[in-house]
């Protein structure tokens, strides 16, 4: 069973040879693993046995796809957003519409003229089409795209003081994401469409569920509909405590929820599985705040085994992943212990790394 077959089977709740895995690492963690395995950092996912291959074609590319060498280095993306590398990640340090009047905001043009460039980001991913589960990430889709342009405070203020104006801009954000989605599903043989917006903090939603339903849900639904119209799985990423809108996500067609930030109120993975597991699949749930960086190897094993057993009790509907990027302070042994509970042995990881080195050496 290859990775493509494995993920499809797991999402359909069919038997798999091992649990599918899709993990994200903090850049420092990825670099450390690359040194340990003696492979390029871009090959870490392959060596670790991850089953999904995807990339960003919307504004998340500017955050994660452009890599700076040193903290303090910056770039301005095609949306006009300024990013600066801070603590290993690109962080927003300039919002193009923060000081704009509402008339000026309404004159903003999304970079649709860069469509070909953005679609080109998928070409390296498609070389893995035969064996891996392929995704296209069109996030941020609605609210998160708007605040990246406007700033969080101004975006929320717009939504409270002038919901009609805010809805128009949220619609335009969603329209751009939907255009990217249509282009991607027309050109590429995808397995899922990846959507997302961080609309929650670690304690609660950033807005009332009622406001989300009024201003964001209808626009998000249009993006989801693009993937559903082609028979694709549709995944949704949102960190934090989004329990109040999970049923809404199911109603608009979301199939997979990520990352299940398990320390947040209402986000216990096993409780979510019990309440919603017959309607959607889950990806995530391995604690990156307490468990992975601080627990012993045996504690990681027990917690991961309990999570997997609970999330697959009905036969599937689960992809193993962490609740966020795996932080630099996580011991290597804890990472390997988590993978081993999914059926990916340390020896197999090092064997794949050796194969990668041989392949790279043969093509050098």
Count of structural domains: 1
End-to-end Cα distance, whole Å, is 30 Å
- Summarize model confidence as the mean pLDDT: 96
Shape: globular
Low-confidence stretches are none
Could you say which structural class the secondary elements and strand pairing correspond to? alpha/beta
Under the CATH scheme, the architecture is: Alpha-Beta Barrel
For the sheet with most strands, the description reads: 7 strands, parallel
Q: What is the name of the CATH topology? A: TIM Barrel
Task: Tell me what the structure shows.
- The structure is a single chain.
- With 364 residues, the chain is of the alpha/beta class.
- The chain has a single domain (3-363), classed as TIM Barrel, CATH 3.20.20.210.
- 47% of the residues lie in helices and 12% in strands.
- The protein has helices at 3-11, 27-37, 44-48, 60-65, 102-106, 115-120, 123-126, 143-150, 152-161, 163-187, 209-215, 217-229, 246-252, 269-276, 291-294, 297-311, 332-341, 346-363, and strands at residues 52-56, 74-76, 82-86, 89-94, 133-137, 192-196, 233-237, 256-258, 281-283, 318-319.
- Strands 1-5-6-7-8-9-10 form a seven-stranded parallel β-sheet.
- Helix 9 crosses helix 10 (163-187).
- The longest helix is centred in the middle third of the chain and has 25 residues, at 163-187.
- The relative contact order is 0.14.
- The mean pLDDT is 96.
């Amino acid at each position: 069973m290859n990775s493509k077959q494995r993920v499809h089977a797991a999402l359909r709740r069919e038997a798999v040879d091992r649990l599918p895995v899709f993990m994200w690492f903090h850049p420092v963690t990825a670099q450390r693993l690359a040194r340990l395995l003696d492979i390029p950092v871009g090959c870490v996912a392959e060596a670790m046995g991850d089953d999904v291959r995807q990339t960003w074609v919307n504004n998340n590319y500017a955050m994660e796809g452009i890599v700076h060498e040193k903290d303090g280095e910056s770039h301005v993306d095609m949306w006009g957003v300024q990013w600066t590398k801070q603590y290993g990640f690109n962080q927003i340090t300039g919002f193009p519409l923060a000081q704009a009047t509402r008339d000026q905001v309404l004159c903003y043009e999304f970079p649709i003229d860069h469509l070909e460039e953005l679609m080109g980001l998928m070409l390296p991913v498609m070389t893995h089409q035969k064996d891996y589960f392929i995704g296209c990430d069109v996030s941020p889709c609605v609210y998160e795209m708007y605040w990246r342009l406007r700033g969080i405070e101004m975006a929320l203020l717009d939504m409270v003081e002038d919901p009609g104006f805010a809805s128009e801009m949220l619609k335009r954000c969603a329209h751009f994401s939907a255009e990217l989605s249509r282009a991607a599903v027309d050109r590429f043989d995808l397995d899922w469409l990846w959507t997302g917006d961080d609309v929650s903090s670690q304690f609660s939603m950033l807005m009332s569920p009622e406001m989300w339903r009024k201003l964001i849900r209808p626009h998000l639904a249009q993006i989801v509909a693009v993937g559903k119209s082609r028979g694709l799985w549709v995944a949704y990423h949102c960190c934090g405590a989004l329990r109040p809108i999970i049923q809404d996500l199911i109603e608009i067609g979301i199939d997979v929820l990520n990352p299940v930030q398990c320390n947040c109120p209402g986000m216990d993975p096993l409780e979510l599985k019990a309440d919603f597991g017959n309607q959607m699949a889950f990806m995530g749930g391995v604690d990156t705040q307490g468990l992975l960086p601080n627990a012993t190897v045996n504690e990681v094993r027990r917690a991961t085994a309990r999570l997997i057993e609970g999330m697959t009790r009905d036969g599937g509907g689960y992809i193993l992943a962490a609740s966020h990027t795996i932080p630099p302070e996580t011991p290597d042994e804890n990472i390997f212990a988590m993978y081993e509970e999914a059926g990916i042995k340390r020896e197999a990881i090092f064997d794949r790394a050796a194969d990668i080195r041989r392949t790279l050496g043969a093509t050098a």
